[in-house]
C-alpha cells in the first residue's frame, strides 16, 4: 500500500497531499521529505501509505493517475517496491544526461522555476539533451501556455532521433489546451495513437479541462464519454478535473448535473471535490447555492478545512460583505480551524477594494501576529487590490516591502502594477514597468501584453500597438481573442474600418472564440467611419453567431444611424431595443436627439426631451453637449445659450467637451450675429473661472475672434 510521489511543488502542504490521495482510499501515513536548505519546503517528493483492508488496491488506483497536474506541476506517481526514488526520472523520461550543463539545467528548473530566460539559456548550452531534458522544457512551456515553444522543442527532440513517450505528449497536449488551441491538442492525441501510444487518464484530463475552460461544454462532455468508452473507470481525478473545469468556466448547472451523475454511478464525492464546487458557486456569487452546498457537505460528515471555509470567505468578500466574512472567521475559531494565508489575503483584498486601506493593513498585521509569514502570493493580492483601487502609491510601497524582505516579485506582481498604470491612462509608466519585467529575467505573458495593447490602443498609439503584437509573436507568446479585440477597438477609435476588419479576420483565422466584445469593437469601427451597410452586416452576424445583443451593441448602432441623420432607422432601433427587454436610458435618448438634429427635425428634439422629463431621466453633460451642438448647427445660438443656462441651473459641472463645443460654435455664429460678442466674453470668463481646460484650437479661434472684434470697434 505504498506509493512514491515525485515532482511535488515545493510549497505544497502535507494536508493537501493527504486530501488528493484520499480519493483512492484511506491514507494511513505520509512520509514527508523536507529540504535541508529550506526546512519550510518539501524536497520535491514524498511517500504515501494506504490503510484499509486492501491497501494494495488503493495504491494501484493512485498509480493509474501518474502524470496528473497538481498545483501547476505534473506528479510522478509510482508503486514503491523499495527502490530508491532516483529511478523516478528514468521511468518517466529515461536516464538523465551526464553532461554538467544538463545537471545545471535541472537545478535551474528547481531553483528558478519562474525565470524564463535562465531556464531557456540553461537548456541551450546542453550539448546533447536527452528525453528527460526535452521533457522538462516542454512541460515548462506547457505550464505557461506557450504552444509554439513547446511544439518547437518537441520537434527539435524528434529531429535528434529521440522517440517521444506518453509523458512528453501529455505535456504537449497541455500546452495546446492552455493556449486554448483545442484543435491542436486533439491533433496531438491522433498523432499519439498513430504511433501506438495509448491515451492515459492525464491526457483525457487535459482535453476535458481545455474544452470546458474554453466554454465548449459539448466537446468536454464528448471527451468525458469517450474516456468511459475506452473502458477507463472515472475516478476522483477525472471527475475532479471536469468539475473544476466547469467551475472555472462558471457553468454551475452542468456541475450540478455531473454531481447527480456521480451519485447515480455510486461515486462518493470527497472534500476536495466539494471544495471545488463551493469555490465555483463563490466565483459566480451565488450565495444561496454556495451556503446550501456548504451545509450539505457538513451533513455528509465531512469536516470543513481552511480551504473549504475560504470559499465562503471569498463569496462574502467578493460581494463586499465584510461583516459576514468576519462571521465565518469566528465560526472557524469555534471549530478550531485556523485561517490560512489565502483567507487573510481575501479579507485584505475585500477591505482594499472597498477603499478601507487601514483595515486591510490591520488584517496584514493580524496575519503576521498569527505566525504566518507573508509570501509572494499574499503580497501579490495586496498589490493587485491597491492597483485595482487606483492607489498606485500604495502598490509601489508594497513592492518595496517585497524586495526589502528578500522576496522576488513575480510576473503577477509587475502585471498588476502595469495594468494599474494602463487603467489610469499612464501608458509611459506602464511601458517602463514592462521593461522592468524583462530586466528582472521574467517572461511577459499574454496577460501583460494584452494590458499594454489595450493601453496603447486607448492612447491611439496604433503603430506602437502593432509593433507590440509583432513582439509578442517573435517571443513565442500566442495572442488570444483579447489581444486582437484590443487592436480592433483601437482601430475603431481611429475610424480605420479596414484595419479593424483585418484584426477581426486574424481572430477567425486563428480559430479564436469571438465574443460579443470583439463584435462590438468591429461594429464601433463601422459606425464611427460611417460604413453603415457593413455595420448592418456585422449586427446581423452577431445574431447568426448565436450571441445576444447587449446595450453596448444597440447603442453603438444607434449612434451610427444618428451620425448619418437616419431618423427613421434610429426610431426603429429604439423600438427593437424595447421589444428585446432593454430599458431606454439617457444614452439612448441622447443618440436619438443627435439623429433628430442631423435629419433637421428640431420638433422631435423638443418631444424627446419631454419624454425624458416624463420618465425622470437625467439630462447629463453629454446630452447638453449634443443639444448645444445641434442648435448651433441649426444656426440658433439663442437656444444653445439657453441649454447652457439650463445646464448651470441643474448644478452640472462644466466639462471640456461642452465648453469647447459652446465657445467654438458661438464664435462661428458671431460672424452672422454681432450681438453675441458680450455673451461670448461672459461665457468665456465663467469657463475660465471654473478652471475648465479648453482645447488649444478653441483658444486660438477665440484669440482671432477677439482681435477681429477689437479692429472692428
Automatic annotation (TrEMBL):
InterPro entries: Nucleotide-bd_a/b_plait_sf, PPR_rpt, PROP1-like_PPR_dom, RBD_domain_sf, RRM_dom, TPR-like_helical_dom_sf. Keywords: Repeat, RNA-binding. It comes from the Eukaryota. SMART domains: RRM. The keyword DNA repair does not apply. One of its GO terms (molecular function) is RNA binding. Residues 1-82 form the RRM domain. PPR repeats lie at residues 165-199, 200-234, 235-269, 270-304, 305-339, 340-374, 375-409, 410-444, 445-479, 480-514, 515-549, 550-584, 585-619, 620-654. Belongs to the PPR family. P subfamily. This is RRM domain-containing protein. It comes from Selaginella moellendorffii (Spikemoss). The lineage of its organism: Eukaryota, Viridiplantae, Streptophyta, Embryophyta, Tracheophyta.
Amino acid at each position: 500500500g505504498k506509493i512514491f510521489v515525485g515532482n511535488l511543488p515545493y510549497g505544497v502542504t502535507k494536508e493537501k497531499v493527504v486530501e488528493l490521495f484520499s480519493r483512492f482510499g484511506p491514507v494511513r501515513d505520509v512520509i514527508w521529505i523536507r529540504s535541508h536548505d529550506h526546512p519550510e519546503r518539501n524536497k520535491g517528493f514524498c511517500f504515501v501509505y494506504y490503510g484499509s483492508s486492501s491497501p494494495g488496491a488503493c495504491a494501484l488506483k493512485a498509480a493509474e493517475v501518474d502524470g496528473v497536474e497538481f498545483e501547476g506541476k505534473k506528479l510522478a506517481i509510482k508503486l514503491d517496491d523499495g527502490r530508491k526514488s532516483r529511478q523516478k526520472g528514468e521511468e518517466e523520461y529515461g536516464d538523465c544526461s551526464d553532461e554538467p550543463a544538463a545537471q545545471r539545467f535541472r537545478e535551474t528548473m528547481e531553483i528558478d522555476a519562474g525565470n524564463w530566460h535562465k531556464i531557456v539559456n540553461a537548456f541551450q548550452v546542453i550539448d546533447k539533451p536527452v528525453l528527460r531534458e526535452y521533457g522538462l522544457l516542454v512541460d515548462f512551456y506547457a505550464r505557461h501556455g506557450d504552444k509554439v515553444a513547446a511544439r518547437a522543442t518537441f520537434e527539435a527532440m524528434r529531429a535528434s532521433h529521440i522517440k517521444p513517450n506518453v509523458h512528453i505528449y501529455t505535456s504537449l497536449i497541455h500546452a495546446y489546451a492552455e493556449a486554448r488551441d483545442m484543435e491542436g491538442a486533439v491533433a496531438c492525441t491522433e498523432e499519439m495513437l498513430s504511433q501506438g501510444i495509448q491515451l492515459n487518464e492525464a491526457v483525457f484530463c487535459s482535453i476535458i479541462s481545455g474544452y470546458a475552460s474554453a466554454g465548449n461544454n459539448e466537446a468536454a462532455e464528448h471527451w468525458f464519454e469517450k474516456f468511459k468508452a475506452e473502458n477507463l473507470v472515472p475516478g476522483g481525478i477525472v471527475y475532479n478535473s471536469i468539475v473544476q473545469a466547469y467551475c472555472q468556466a462558471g457553468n454551475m448547472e452542468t456541475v450540478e448535473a455531473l454531481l447527480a451523475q456521480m451519485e447515480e454511478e455510486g461515486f462518493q464525492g470527497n472534500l476536495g471535490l466539494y471544495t471545488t464546487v463551493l469555490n465555483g458557486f463563490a466565483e459566480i456569487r451565488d450565495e444561496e447555492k454556495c451556503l446550501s452546498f456548504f451545509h450539505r457537505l457538513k451533513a455528509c460528515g465531512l469536516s470543513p478545512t481552511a480551504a473549504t471555509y475560504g470559499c465562503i470567505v471569498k463569496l462574502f468578500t467578493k460581494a463586499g460583505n465584510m461583516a459576514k466574512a468576519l462571521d465565518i472567521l469566528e465560526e472557524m475559531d469555534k471549530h478550531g480551524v485556523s485561517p490560512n494565508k489565502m483567507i487573510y489575503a481575501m479579507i485584505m483584498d475585500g477591505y482594499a477594494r472597498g477603499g478601507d486601506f487601514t483595515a486591510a493593513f490591520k488584517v496584514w498585521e493580524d496575519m503576521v501576529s498569527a505566525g504566518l509569514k507573508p509570501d509572494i502570493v499574499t503580497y501579490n493580492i495586496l498589490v493587485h487590490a491597491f492597483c485595482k483601487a487606483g492607489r498606485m502609491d500604495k502598490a509601489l510601497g508594497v513592492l518595496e516591502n517585497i524586495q526589502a524582505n528578500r522576496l522576488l516579485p513575480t510576473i503577477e506582481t509587475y502585471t498588476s502594477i502595469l495594468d494599474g498604470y494602463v487603467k489610469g491612462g499612464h501608458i509611459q509608466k506602464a511601458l517602463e514597468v514592462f521593461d522592468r519585467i524583462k530586466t528582472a529575467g521574467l517572461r511577459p505573458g499574454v496577460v501583460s501584453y494584452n494590458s499594454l495593447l489595450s493601453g496603447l490602443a486607448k492612447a491611439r498609439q496604433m503603430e506602437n500597438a502593432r509593433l507590440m503584437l509583432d513582439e509578442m509573436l517573435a517571443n513565442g507568446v500566442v495572442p488570444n481573442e483579447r489581444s486582437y479585440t484590443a487592436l480592433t477597438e483601437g482601430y475603431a477609435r481611429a475610424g480605420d474600418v479596414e484595419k479593424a476588419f483585418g484584426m477581426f479576420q486574424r481572430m477567425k483565422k486563428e480559430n479564436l472564440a469571438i465574443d460579443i466584445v470583439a463584435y462590438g469593437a468591429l461594429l464601433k469601427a463601422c459606425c464611427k467611419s460611417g460604413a453603415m451597410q457593413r455595420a448592418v452586416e456585422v449586427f446581423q452576424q452577431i445574431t447568426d453567431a448565436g450571441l445576444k445583443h447587449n446595450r453596448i451593441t444597440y447603442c453603438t448602432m444607434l449612434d451610427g444611424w444618428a451620425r448619418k441623420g437616419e431618423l427613421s432607422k434610429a426610431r426603429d432601433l429604439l423600438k427593437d431595443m424595447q421589444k428585446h427587454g432593454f430599458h431606454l436610458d439617457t444614452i439612448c435618448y441622447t443618440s436619438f436627439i443627435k439623429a433628430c438634429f442631423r435629419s433637421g427635425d428640431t420638433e422631435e428634439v423638443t418631444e424627446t426631451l419631454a419624454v425624458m422629463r416624463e420618465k425622470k431621466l437625467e439630462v447629463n453633460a453629454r446630452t447638453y453637449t449634443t443639444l448645444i451642438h445641434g442648435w448651433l448647427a441649426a444656426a440658433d445660438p439663442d437656444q444653445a445659450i439657453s441649454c447652457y443656462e439650463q445646464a448651470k441651473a441643474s448644478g452640472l459641472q462644466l466639462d471640456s467637451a461642452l465648453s469647447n463645443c459652446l465657445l467654438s460654435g458661438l464664435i462661428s455664429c458671431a460672424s452672422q450675429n454681432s450681438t453675441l460678442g458680450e455673451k461670448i466674453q461672459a461665457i468665456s470668463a465663467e469657463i475660465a473661472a471654473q478652471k475648465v481646460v479648453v482645447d488649444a484650437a478653441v483658444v486660438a479661434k477665440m484669440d482671432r475672434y477677439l482681435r477681429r472684434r477689437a479692429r472692428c470697434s
